[in-house]
Amino acid sequence: MRLTRQRKSPDRGGIVNTPAARVWTWAVVIAALALIFMVDRATAVAPVQHLYYIPIILASVRFGFRGSAVAAAAIFLYHLANPKVITFRYEESDVVQIALFIAVGLTAAKLANDSRRLHKLATTDDLTGLHNLRSFEAQLRTLMQAAARRALPIALLVLDLDRLKSMNDTHGHLAGAEAVRTVGQTIAEHVPAGAVACRYGGDEFVIALPDCDEERARTIADGLRLAVHSLAPVLAGGSFPKGTLSISVGIACSATTPLPATTPASRWARFSSSDDSRAALDEGQDDAAGEVLFRAADAALYVAKSGGRNRVAVADVDLPAGGLV
């Protein structure tokens, strides 16, 4: 889906946050410490001892301040590999080496934590804590690619809060903002694992449901609608009865919504053999497919709104055969 104007890069941060990646990182850090220790013990020269910075920085960047504790392990191994240091008869170079181990670990951890905090701020909606639009677009592209590769359906739910303007006019914009926040929190609590939820407008949300057919998408949408309607929210310090909030939901599923046709590899080969160009074409196709799915769900949302609100509608699948090209 391409609703923002600037070119985006897929968010690949999740790849290094998997349990397997964490295990492999620790394995590399431990192996590096052991190897450097053996060489340090055999040589006792400063250039080799500087290699301790590599596992210190790797662990600090990957695990933050917890990882910076590797500096303590490096100091211990440095003492063990150099018996004269164990006597605590430090030379000036020893003091500098130990201080640098600690400083490098703490500095790398601080920079890594700041980077993660900035990334979160750049990809998160402030009001609800859900993905913002740019982050969602990158995530959706990845989901569309996976769905196409594995021949699995993907569904989009587009929804908004009913009668928000009336609430703003009657109870004030603070109450309206808290109503939007409440709906966002309810979405976060009720969407299934693997789903990606985004607030892309004032009271407008979109949810991507990978490996989800139309029937399951309707069940999820109905469950979410009922969860919101059953809330007795506290807005701007005032208590409101159940039924105060409601949402309307539009659904579109790739299994029933014709999407843009992909370009066969043989046809593409006549235009370019560049991997970058091929990747750009693939991204464009995924963006176009996501946008068609979004527009179909958005049209279904208007059907739900015009039908009386607080309801779910499924996209009209009576589209030209063969999809859009």
Summarize the structure.
With 325 residues, this protein is an alpha+beta fold. 57% of the residues lie in helices and 10% in strands. It has two domains: 13-123, no CATH class; 133-314, 2-Layer Sandwich (Alpha-Beta Plaits).
Specify the CATH architecture of the largest domain.
2-Layer Sandwich
Count of DSSP H/I helices: 12
The major pleated sheet works out as:
5 strands, mixed
Instruction: Estimate what percentage of residues fall within beta strands.
Output: 5-15%
Q: What fraction, in percent, of the residue positions are helical?
A: 55-70%
| Spatial order of strands in the largest sheet | 2-3-1-6-7
Assigned CATH superfamily of the largest domain: Reverse transcriptase/Diguanylate cyclase domain
Low-confidence stretches: 3-16, 262-273, 318-325
When the domains are counted, the total is 2
Total number of beta strands: 7
Shape: elongated
Tell me the distance between the termini.
Answer: 15 Å
Structure explained in plain terms:
The strands form 2 sheets. The chain has a 5-stranded mixed β-sheet with strand order 2-3-1-6-7, with helices on both faces. The protein has helices at residues 19-43, 46-49, 53-63, 70-81, 83-86, 92-123, 133-150, 164-171, 173-190, 214-229, 265-269, 275-306; strands at 154-161, 196-199, 204-210, 234-235, 238-239, 247-253, 312-314. Helices cover 57% and strands 10% of the residues. It has 325 residues and is an alpha+beta fold. The radius of gyration is 27 Å and the shape is elongated. It has 2 domains: 13-123, no CATH class; 133-314, Reverse transcriptase/Diguanylate cyclase domain (Alpha-Beta Plaits, 2-Layer Sandwich). The two termini are 15 Å apart.
